[in-house]
TrEMBL record:
InterPro entries (UniProt xref): Homeodomain-like_sf (IPR009057), HTH-type_TetR-like_transc_reg (IPR050109), HTH_TetR (IPR001647), Tet_transcr_reg_TetR-rel_C_sf (IPR036271)
Protein name: TetR/AcrR family transcriptional regulator
Gene3D superfamilies: Tetracycline Repressor, domain 2
PANTHER family: HTH-TYPE TRANSCRIPTIONAL REGULATOR BETI, HTH-TYPE TRANSCRIPTIONAL REGULATOR RUTR
Keywords associated with the record: DNA-binding, Transcription, Transcription regulation
Organism the protein comes from: Streptosporangium vulgare
Tree of life domain: Bacteria
Length: 227
């Protein structure tokens, strides 16, 4: 699920742009990728403009809203995430597919703090992005249903448990990307073991699930947390 940070601009994005305008646009996208990956999507737009070496007015001319910048920056990651879910749905072993999605999404989160927040945020005006996000969520829900039907995934697993997992994984603090990935893999392995039905102590039920879903996770930028 590795994504190159140097995504080629889509033709529709750049049609009619002068060479200097296209250069500024690419610099903004690269600066935003770096800022979102390390600081999350709440980083001020002015800070992104400074990283890109352009004026704030230039940034807003290319990307009128934070949402338009976020959805463009993470378009390829979203496509990759949807592809992971689609591949898992095609896996003849639903439990293996379920595990694979969890492992790959958490690995992405460990290396790019911004994408998980962007994925969990609804952007009603970004039609293509929103359609792909909803498709990924529905695909994971179907994968969860299938994994439960096999008897491998505990029947009391809920969508809120995915949010809890991502909260825990997002709390990892490490000195390097490699250390973050190492810690994430171990944490995810522990949690996946607890999700297995054969580890279930039927005499000790889980406490109630918390009253929130994926987009109730903390750390989303205020302008993007609706929906």
């Amino acid at each position: 699920m590795s994504i190159s940070s140097s995504r080629m601009p889509r033709p529709a994005d750049t049609a009619g742009l002068r060479v200097d305008a296209l250069h500024n646009r690419n610099r903004i996208l690269e600066a935003a990728r770096e800022a979102f990956a390390t600081l999350g999507p709440g980083v001020p737009m002015a800070a992104i403009a400074r990283r890109a070496g352009v004026g704030v007015a230039t940034l807003y001319r290319r990307f009128p809203t934070r949402e338009s910048l976020i959805t463009e920056v993470f378009a390829d990651q979203m496509e990759a995430c949807v592809s992971v879910v689609d591949d898992a749905l095609a896996d003849p072993d639903p439990w293996h597919g379920f595990r694979t999605v969890i492992e790959k999404v958490c690995a992405m989160q460990a290396t790019d703090r911004g994408f998980t927040a962007a994925f969990l945020t609804a952007f009603p005006d970004a039609v293509d992005y929103e359609r792909e996000r909803v498709r990924a969520e529905r695909g994971f829900a179907e994968l969860t249903r299938r994994a439960k039907a096999t008897g491998r995934l505990r029947a009391d697993f809920e969508q809120a448990d995915l949010a809890l997992l991502l909260m825990a994984n997002g709390g990892i603090v490490a000195g390097s990307t490699e250390d973050a990935l190492t810690a994430s893999r171990r944490l995810v392995a522990y949690l996946l073991q607890s999700f297995q039905a054969d580890h279930l102590d039927r005499d000790v039920p889980l406490p109630p699930a918390p009253p929130f879903g994926l987009r109730h996770m903390p750390g989303l930028p205020p302008a993007c947390s609706a929906g």
